[in-house]
Sequence to fold (217 residues):
Amino acid sequence: MSFAREGLVFIAIAALIAAGTFALALNRRSWPLWLLAFLLTLISLWVAYFFRDPERSGPRGERVVIAPADGKVVLIQEVDEPAFMGGRTKRVSIFMNVFNVHVNRYPVSGTVRYVKYNPGKFLNAAVEKSSLENEQMSVGIESGGVRVLVRQIAGLIARRIVTYSKEGEQVEQAQRMGLIRFGSRVDVFLPLDAVVTAKIGDMTVAGTSVIAELPTR
Fold:
């Protein structure tokens, strides 16, 4: 099992605290300290589990749109997105809880044309207005004449969005693009003539699940 590089320091700190508590419990022969050490070990294992970064495989192709996040499809709507998409689009929103893999991946291959960070609130990421009011990072990709926008949105617990994207770089479908710590949401904005194959309530796997098909240009 591999782990996201941003999580290595948290994993190391949690493991050291648990090990130190075990050493103290052994030295003092204290049952309360043994219990605390056991609880801290469970927490350190959960931290490692949270930052897991498994390899992913699945369908690939110019017209295929792959889920950028593990989680649950909570919204599928037509909305305006003037900043990069230039008007009306279809949006697919995926909500991640604290048990999902939090590494995000590019839904399509292409050139990054737009990277924009917006500070904001930390509302429940599952609700509609979080897409406008919460802290977020938007990454626009041009893929074969079609534009696709991925938006990482912070949530109630999440306080750190990590994005590797840089304008002008070439990216590959399912390549890692960043992560959001401790539960949040990722929106994908598609052209109106894209065919959304995902349904509300579907559980997605980043880099594996197909959520839509792009139109030909």
